[in-house]
Amino acid sequence: MMLSSSRAAARLGVSLFSRLPVRLLEPPVVPYSGSTGPVAAHSALPATVQTAQEKWIKRFESENIPEPQTSITNIIAHVLQLDGPGDVGKHQNSSLNEMQMAKIEELCECRLARMPIQYIIREWDFRDLTLKMAPPVFIPRPETEELVELILQQMDTGEESSFLEIGCGSGAISLSILKHAPKASAIAIDQSRLACELTQENANSTGLADRLRIFRHKVIDDLPDALAGQKFDMIVSNPPYVPSVLLPTLDPEVKIYEDLRALDGGNDGLTVIKAILRVAGKHLAKDGVLWLEVDSTHPPVIEKFLTKHGELMGLRFLASYKDLFHKDRFVEIVKL
User: Mean pLDDT over all residues of the chain?
Assistant: First the structure.
């Protein structure tokens, strides 16, 4: 099913399977100074937004960097502190001073090293939230925005409810749901300390921290002891689901910069998913719902698994839904 597009998807087009690097460059961002800045001394042509954009598009294309135009557009918007990449077109003839040119060069070198643009500019839009990004924490994709849209369409956002997110990463899913469900409360868990810290930072910056508790925990068979016996109206997860054997085939942005634990789903890609099913069987309230984002080959496998074992777990496969690429991507499971 097709759902509404997002600002994040617009920034990178429809592809967003890219990730991050090891060294982080943090010179101060130079505020946009209009057309009065000095021209970079090393350039024979006036240093303008347009010339910088054209130069780096050609360079990125020559080095086979994915999405060359969106990469440089986001970098320029970041350096000039514009409201967004859509504003770059309004400043094509604006001059760039030497510090701005140097900063653009520096960040473009990171992109040449296949660092994902999200880590280069240190933030990204997820639905209507702007979230901080930091390596190696998993970068949310446009497909995950569709998962949130599905959930909100079927959730009574005006009622009190509680939900659990397993594998929170940057906190994108939990925070987006909390923003649109003002009476909901959430618990988010992740095995990564950096992910938990980034989720907390994003919760603080979005003003949603008072309704979110975060635990560092690796889900194997159950939740942290502090949550023993707790029941939730909903559990949601975008878990690791890439088969281990396929990890070396991923894009450089992913395998160089991403925390592969957020991607590695074991031999068949289902190791973590089956652990989540066990947790859901214990911690979903009656008629509660488990939402999963999975590989497109997984929905029939999960349905078959629950047909065989679901009654013992108290779970029933309800439906699968397609993503914007028309691939089965999202699974809905109910607690009996």
Answer: 89
